From TrEMBL:
One of its GO terms (molecular function) is alpha-mannosidase activity. Residues 1-19 form the signal peptide. One of its GO terms (biological process) is mannose metabolic process. It comes from the Bacteria. This is Glycoside hydrolase. InterPro entries: Gal_mutarotase_sf_dom, Glyco_hydro/deAcase_b/a-brl, Glyco_hydro_38_C, Glyco_hydro_38_N, Glyco_hydro_38_N_sf, Glyco_hydro_b. Residues 616-778 form the Glycosyl hydrolase family 38 C-terminal domain. Residues 128-423 form the Glycoside hydrolase family 38 N-terminal domain.
Length: 959
């Protein structure tokens, strides 16, 4: 039977950001028939659709098309088209095929015959594709942050109006808006009138505005455990206040995520994670995870979140970008109407995309795409019309404008039993941004530990007027510094541009404010209520009895150098070259304090008289420096040298450009004693170094304290050509395995990583441990989180690295570590240069026996959270004591409502462990299992069990 294919009102042109406009006199030279996975309505029948493509030009004169398929021939008359057409849709004859069939078309045009053949394979006829409208939130990048914020707040208003306008559309085409980052919502509500706020919440409850939990598009591997939890605090408070649930997060642009997210799923309530990463820039092998959803099992195996990495978030801009303004260059961009919503839409992109999924045996019949007009762009006001027209024409794939919540609910409801479960860290790629702002990174990391100690002191001292708002705002500043936008889009091309400078100043201020506010809150927490003149209190904010050095500021030790305990026993002390007074405090109680007296008098200036002036020792370690370079030549403990002869330990390495062959080191060193007393010895190494005005490296030991401290200070010169700075830590631990601390857990490099995650560099929280079965060491840095294993794999990583062969897919175990402290290698976003003094602290602790996760965690906490000293007070302490084997308390704080305390406890071992919370003041506590919102979820006994590698939040209240 012959039928004539009438021209549809849909003349679906080939879409591409790179399409070329063809003049009318450009005639086609051949035709290609391309089967698709789409089905269309054709005269009351549902038919498979193919596309006839005119190559190298357009067809203007029409012609006769013969289609031979499925044992049926049909003839179609293609009419004349004055403007020319590059492709036509063909409704293929016959029933749905179950086996591959050949398709042959012959197009007769002006006496010329053109033939094309293709094989049509069976495909799904019931695809549903969810389309998520959003605007990617970069806090900066495209413009100064104030204008970026205004744009995203304007988008909320525009989205509400468009949602209202489209409420009579078919349900699938009704507009919904995803705000992407709670940062936008937080500011919108603060700046809105009560009436506007009510309008917003009405829209949320109607489903017009969709809220996801994350405060921003954060590099989650950079956030420590507490920050990662706080990343969802604002959204959960908003949800609680307005009677809604937020269980989802959407992360745009950022490639990869911390395994710690899965570890806290029950604590935060965030159980669904949609990732819409960057399309190509510095993403390594991440694309291999696209459209492979899985339940992400936590390290404990007791929690999980559903993770889906969809295609890159930039699809909308890629298809429509040449039809709309370049919003990067528009100061006050507004939603733009092309007047042709069906053009530059998902035809033919979506057909090719779904065909690829089917060729990979994608087991589901629904999927999701995001739809954004670029970074920090207005909404696409034509999307509802485009979706409505699409669904009128296509039976499959059907489009649904969606929210993250709707998509995951629909997907899980249909496929929960078929979704695979995986474990491992999705090691992030973009964390290298922190070393383009090394000084601020160090400040931000330090501020986080200070704020945790301030929380603990407030709880230990039981001081009233705990300011939850002040703490919350400080956490937000830390998170926003860890947000993925480090600089402007033209930061490396035009670093002196006023907007570039403004955007960095705004970004930098997050870290500076966090530092200032955390210091202020700590000072407030330590402020004595009833001072004791001449006395000092030394506080221990950890759950173990602690013996360690105390550093007394000169302002608290003006009376003298003599330190005594309350029994009158004199304690050895030493006045440092900085003017500070130090002594060793013994057995400071857990979550408690010890009190000491500073007396008049001066200690005799006892100095060590070492045989060699390049050597220091403290009874546990002996450190020997190379006389010429100042690098560490020997690191000896128990007659074992942990230094590797192949590379110098603590060597400065400067790489101009990105080639290892150009690597340079520091010049001839001058070695002197900085401290040379009975408690503290340190050698100061000064040298010239490329890329700097000078390099100082201090190596410090404390008498009978099992720890080496290294303090490296770079006085950086501004270099705008590409560069990297490393410090080398080659240890000698044959057969050693590398493990490192991530939020709420630890990872063994390679074996605990998901495939296709980053293996070129790693991001630690508090520590890295390298151990074989017999011995090892724990290495950490409060300031510099990035490190590489075995060799410098960040060489050749210049620019965007799209499909680069330099992304590695396997990490060999090695006891050689490189600390990657500075770089400007990316072609965008990073600062062009850094200058001034930046200090990097490192701590090393060798140990007998193999890896011990608890001891590594304890060492990391000690290195990041020193004993605190303040003027003494007579106030009574709360008396909280947490006990248990192989556990540590990450958080101790007053409850936000000040009706108790919150402790977050981590089990470091594979096995369940018992824990208890008691009082050493004779008080009686009642305990509740709790969560991020500090709810009383379940009453628990004083003694309770934490699952292996588990995390528990406990609410503690007085009886």
């Amino acid at each position: 039977m012959k039928k004539i294919l009438l021209l549809s009102v849909f003349c679906w042109l080939t879409n591409s950001a790179f399409s070329i406009s063809l003049s009318k006199d450009t005639l086609f030279t051949s035709v290609t028939v391309k089967p698709t996975v789409a089905y269309i309505n054709y005269h009351g029948e549902v038919r498979r659709m193919a596309r006839l493509i005119f190559n190298d030009g357009k067809c203007y004169t029409g012609g006769r098309l013969v289609v031979d398929f499925n044992e049926t021939k049909e003839v179609y008359e293609i009419p004349v088209a004055a403007t020319g057409v590059q492709n036509y849709e063909i409704a293929l004859p016959g029933k749905t095929i179950k086996t591959p069939q050949q398709l042959t078309v012959v197009f007769n045009n002006q006496g010329q015959s053109y033939t094309s053949r293709a094989v049509v394979t069976p495909c799904k006829s019931n695809w549903t594709v969810y389309v998520l409208p959003h605007s990617h939130v970069d806090i900066g990048y495209t413009n100064v942050q104030s204008k970026v914020l205004k744009l995203h707040m304007d988008n909320i208003d525009a989205a509400i109006e468009l949602a209202k306008k489209t409420q009579n559309y078919p349900e699938e085409a009704r507009y919904k808006w995803t705000t992407e980052a709670i940062w936008v919502v937080d500011n919108y509500l603060k700046m809105s009138s009560p009436e506007k706020q009510q309008r917003f919440w009405d829209a949320v409850k109607k489903g017009w505005i969709s809220l996801d939990g994350a405060y921003g598009n954060i590099n989650t591997s950079l956030t420590d455990s507490r920050q990662l939890m706080e990343m969802f605090a604002a959204s959960q408070r908003l949800a609680r206040a307005h009677g809604i649930d937020i269980h989802t997060m959407f992360q745009g642009d950022v490639p990869g995520a911390s395994w710690g997210l899965a570890a806290q799923a029950e604590q935060t309530g965030i159980k669904y994670f949609l990732s819409g990463p960057n399309a190509s820039d510095r993403i390594g092998r991440l694309a291999q995870w696209q459209d492979k959803p899985f339940y992400w099992l936590s390290p404990s195996g007791k929690q999980k979140m559903l993770f889906w990495q969809c295609p890159p978030y930039s699809i909308g801009y890629g298809l429509k970008g040449d039809k709309i303004p370049n919003f990067f260059n528009v100061e006050d961009p507004k939603p733009f109407y092309t007047g042709k919503p069906s053009e530059n839409f998902l035809n033919p992109y979506l057909f090719d995309h779904l065909q690829q999924l089917e060729s990979k045996n994608f087991p589901y019949d629904l999927s999701i795409l995001t739809w954004a007009m670029s970074d920090n762009a207005p909404i696409d006001p034509e999307l509802p019309d485009a979706v409505q027209l699409w669904n009128q024409h296509y039976v499959s794939p059907k489009l649904v404008i969606t929210s993250v919540k709707q998509f995951f609910n629909d997907f899980e409801k249909k496929y929960a039993k078929e979704i695979p479960t995986y474990s491992g860290d999705y090691t992030e790629y973009w964390t290298d941004g922190v070393s383009s702002g090394a000084s601020e990174t160090a400040k931000n990391r330090h501020a986080s530990e200070v704020l945790k100690q301030a929380d603990a002191i407030w709880a230990i001292r039981n001081v009233p007027n705990y300011s939850r708002i002040d703490f919350s705002e400080t956490w937000k500043n830390m998170l926003l510094f860890n947000e993925h936008t480090w600089g402007a889009y033209n930061s490396t091309d035009d670093p002196d541009d006023a907007k570039v400078k403004s955007q960095w100043s705004y970004k930098q201020a997050f870290a500076l404010r966090a530092e200032k506010k955390s210091d202020s809150l700590l000072a407030s927490s330590l402020s004595p209520l009833r001072p004791r003149e001449g006395y000092i209190d030394v506080y221990n904010t950890n759950m173990w009895k602690r013996t360690d050095i105390v550093v007394v500021p000169a302002s608290l030790s003006k009376s003298g150098d003599i330190v005594k305990d309350l029994s009158g026993r004199k304690i050895p002390s030493q006045r440092l070259s900085s003017g500070e007074l130090v002594f060793i405090a013994t057995d400071v109680p857990p979550f408690g304090k010890s009190t000491f007296i500073i007396n008049k008098g001066r200690n005799p200036q006892i100095k060590n008289s070492p045989t060699f002036k390049n050597t220091i020792t403290n009874g546990i370690y002996t450190i020997v420096l190379d006389n010429k370079t100042g690098d560490i030549k020997k690191l000896i403990r128990n007659n074992k040298n942990y230094a590797n002869d192949s590379v110098s330990l603590n060597q400065y390495l400067y790489m101009p450009g990105d080639l290892l062959k150009n690597m340079e080191s520091s010049g001839t060193a001058t070695i002197t004693y900085k401290e040379n007393g009975p408690l503290v010895q340190s050698l100061m190494v000064r040298s010239d170094a490329p890329g700097t005005k000078g390099l100082e490296r201090e190596i410090k030991l404390i008498s009978n304290v099992d720890r080496i401290e290294i303090i490296n200070t770079i006085d950086k010169t501004a270099v705008r050509s590409k560069e990297s700075v490393h410090f080398a830590f080659p240890f000698s631990i044959p057969g050693g395995q590398v493990r490192y601390n991530i939020p709420w857990a630890a990872v063994t490099a390679e074996s605990d990583q998901l495939p296709n995650s980053n293996r070129n560099w790693y991001t630690m929280q508090r520590w890295v441990d390298i151990s074989n079965a017999n011995y090892g060491l724990t290495w950490s840095s409060p300031d510099a989180p990035l490190f590489e294993i075995g060799k410098i794999k960040t060489a050749n990583l210049l620019g965007g690295l799209q499909h680069s062969p330099y992304w590695v897919d396997f990490t060999s175990q090695s006891s050689i570590i490189y600390s990657w402290v500075m770089n400007n290698l990316w072609h965008t976003n990073f600062r062009a240069d850094q200058q001034g003094k930046t200090t990097f602290h490192y701590f090393i602790q060798a140990h007998d026996g193999g890896y011990d996760s608890f001891k590594a965690s304890q060492a990391g906490i000690y290195n990041h959270q020193p004993l605190l000293v303040t003027s003494a007070s007579t106030d009574e302490l709360s008396g909280i004591v947490v006990k248990g084997k192989n556990i540590y308390t990450e958080v101790l704080k007053p409850a936000d409502d000040q009706q108790g305390y919150i402790a977050i406890i981590v089990n470091t071992s594979e096995e369940p462990n018992h824990a208890s919370v008691i009082s050493d003041k004779g008080k009686s506590f009642q305990l509740f299992e709790s969560n991020l919102m500090e709810d009383k979820l379940k009453r628990i006994d004083q003694n309770f069990t934490i699952p292996g590698k588990g995390v528990m939040t406990i609410r503690i209240e007085n009886l």
